[in-house]
Amino acid sequence: MPAIGKIFYSPRTFDLVFAGAGLLAVFGLVSLAGKPFPAIEAPDSPLLKGVIVLAVVIAGGAMSLVTTRVDQKCADDFVFSTLTKSAFQGFMGYILASTLWEVLFSHSIGAISTPISMMIAMGSWSLAYLLTRWKGTRA
Amino acid sequence: MKNRLKVLRAERDWSQADLAERIRVSRQAVNAIETGKHDPSLALAFRIARLFETHAEDIFFADEE
User: Fold this and answer.
1) Which residues of B touch A79 (CB under 8 A)?
2) Residue B33 belongs to some domain of the structure
3) Which UniProt keyword terms apply here (chain A) (predicted)?
4) Domain boundaries in chain A?
5) pTM
6) In this predicted model, what pLDDT tens digit does every residue of A17-62 receive, in sequence order?
7) How high is the ipTM of this complex?
């Protein structure tokens, strides 16, 4: 692997990236939590919106397939396992946190907006990465 | 999975960084394998075995063994 790739895919780089992402998520959650967001208006053509959403999901999935393949090729065994395990844990954490919020607090405190959802996802992945680096990929 | 990586490395007087360079992984990866925090892939286990001129099962073995 070229030297630049070695530096980019080193554990140190990802440690810094996830530390930054985690801090950004905490800052974002605190600063955005009380901010009102406009309601989503009903589209003129619900079918068209549905098709576009589906296309965006497929495009996002295809992009993640390609980038994951690049990651697997460039990152070493340990780094790739750490990234994938923490991504899975982070995604599950995001789903569970969103569900808990919906069930317990949504009616009394209010729904969470898309930017807050993204901060929860980012924070959840960062926390999972930290725990995986600390406890290892077998934990 | 347990392993004898640290012993084999010490016998050759290599640092974790030396071994990492030889098997083309990060030093953190070597540390994680030695401390039992990460099980290497088959490809990496074979690469390690080739470096130490032995079989993978002579370096890595199941926890209950």
Assistant:
1) 26, 28-29
2) yes
3) Membrane, Transmembrane, Transmembrane helix
4) 3-38+76-135
5) 0.88
6) 999 999 999 999 999 988 888 888 888 899 999 999 999 999 999 9
7) 0.89
What are the distances in angstroms from CA A81 to CA A5, A8, A87, B38? 17, 16, 10, 9
Domain-embedded: residue B65: no
Owning domain of residue B17:
2-58
- Out of A11, A76, A138, closest to residue B39 by CB: A138
8 Å CB contact of B44 and A10: no
- Chain A residues within 8 A of B24 when measuring between CB atoms: 1, 76
Task: List pLDDT tens digits, range A119-136.
Answer: 999 999 999 999 999 999
Residue A79 to residue B29, Cβ atoms within 8 A: yes
Phi, psi dihedral angles at B31 (to 5 degrees): -60, -45
Cα Dmax for chain B: 31
Residue at B38 is within a domain: yes
